[in-house]
Amino acid sequence: MDDMDFRRVAEISYLNADNTWRYRAIVRFCFKKHEHMQTYVYPEDIYHELKKDAHFQNYTFEQMEQDLTQLVAWKNLQAHQETGRAKTIDDFKKKRFRYQCTPYTVEIERMVEKLKSIGEEFGGSLETTQFDRILRTLREFLFPQSPLPDEELNQTWQDLQHYFRTLVQNASDYLAHLKSAKVEERMQTTAFILYKDKFTQYLQTFIIGLQRSAQKMEHLFKNSSPEREHALFQRLADYQLTIPRLGEEKSREAYLEDFRERFAVMREWFIGTSYRDSELSSLSKETIETIRRITKFAQRLAEQRQASKSRKADYLLLARWFSQTEKKEEADKLSAAVFGPSGGRHFHGETREKEDKNSRIELELPTTIEVKPRIANYRERAKQVPIRDQQEAKEAARKQHLEEQQQLADMLEGLVSDHVIDFANLPLLTREARQVLLGWVARTLHRESIRTETGAVIRLLWDRKDTRRILLTCEDGNFEMPPMKLQVSDGKG
Predict the structure, then answer these.
(1) In this structure, what DSSP letter does residue 72 have?
(2) Which of 1, 74, 182, 274 is placed for a possible disulfide with 5 were both Cys, Cβ 3.0 to 4.6 Å?
(3) Is residue 353 one of the residues assigned to a domain?
(4) Residues 162 and 267 in one domain
(5) Buried b / exposed e across 288-306, counting CB within 10 Å, b at 16+?
(6) pTM (2 d.p.)
(7) What is the pLDDT of residues 398-446, one digit of tens each?
């Protein structure tokens, strides 16, 4: 941080001063003239414009001159003495001025104008086209098909920064909009059900575009080298120094540091660092969570709507059925079918030891429930249960597990040829071996390397431009996949 970060910003004093309504009116008029390419404004023009408003009916020219002097002291306006229109010595002594907005004031007024258009709610959007623009511009900046002139390189860098800033601001504003209190209130109304599908489809399209572009951008960042980036930043800094500027000029090192910092922020946003995930993955998780929240709101509203639906016609039909029964036994059966058996008893059984989604109900073992008598002074007979030594059973289970793991490790080691597992040349695989190998592939897709339980280091060898497909033959079926290879090393190097 430098001294500019600690100084008092006097240029914004006119927004909250005692006579702020007068100061803001003057500055607003000068700002509009600046936007219309009329750089200098004369006091007479300001005064005639202010007198058109009912609030300035009692406003005098002397008061306006005092306000202009104060705005010049706050550095909102710059006063330039007008000497060309003086016809006499007295006119020259009067020091007639014309006024110009300072750069700070122009940006402050633009900010105020933008704040007025924003209102009380967040805006923003989730556009997948931003990812395509960033990907195209980043590829053109780092790996151009032909060398770019300095002017085009600078414009490409400016476009890349603009697209990245727009993506981050729009995404954060839109997600904040969906989390705002007003939007949550609207989500709890029945009218929201009509918009649920549109919201969900919009967010899902954004997630698909994000996932499609994320790996490509990660590939570009990882293939880039610090030497390449430094050479590009040097060209950008040299180009900035060729632009003539009046006033303070940044040094070449200041430009280089600024470019390096901006690029590092962009890199960390897309691919993260060694100790934290990327902001891109956080954005993906937050968008998916928003889809779940919207779906949950819509489901709750649908349930409330169904619960409040009139059941008058159903009750009349049931009453007609009951009136048509001739015997009480028939009425009891109909009542049991509609309302359930009366006087039923509910028992709570023990939970199952393990869950298997492929198990069938006929294979489930019955649950035995002991019913205790409900009499006074009943005491359950204490049973003496000896403590059994389970050491042998534990050792046998442990030995069996180690043997299975060793068999699997030996089988996988037999698949390695010259420290490489080539999926195109593998023999018939068992179900366990296929699960282990594809699990390694899934983990190495997101990391440069992984370490197995045995200490081996696995790296994925895959040319993403290769469009060929291979067939992996397994005992439980065939699996089609790209021509991938796994490099296996002992991890001691």
Answers:
(1) H
(2) 1
(3) no
(4) yes
(5) eebbeebeebbeebeeeee
(6) 0.43
(7) 888 888 778 777 777 888 888 888 888 888 888 888 888 888 888 888 8
